[in-house]
Amino acid sequence: EFCLGLAQALQGAEGVWALAADTDGIDGVEDNAGALVAPDTLARAAALQLRLGDHLDRHDAYGFFSALDDLVVTGPTHTNVNDFRVLLVL
């Protein structure tokens, strides 16, 4: 959900990418560790008729980023050093 909020806040800002993931390899009950945000995230979502606000309201980051093929899936890592966030600004 962090990535959904970030994508909304960035509004496709050029030169900004983000990754948010859980180091244990799963996010709650889902099979993904996290998701990626890119400058074209909102444009690709619009092309698929995905409405970011609707996904935020439903707390459905998985559905949003799965449709974009932007989930980070590592499988269980058997370690947990907490959540990982990184921003790349070029």
UniProtKB/TrEMBL annotation:
Residues 1-83 form the MOFRL domain. It comes from the Bacteria. It holds the Pfam family MOFRL. SUPFAM superfamilies: GckA/TtuD-like. GO terms for molecular function: glycerate kinase activity. One of its GO terms (cellular component) is cytoplasm. PANTHER family: GLYCERATE KINASE (PTHR12227). This is MOFRL domain protein. It comes from Acidovorax delafieldii 2AN.
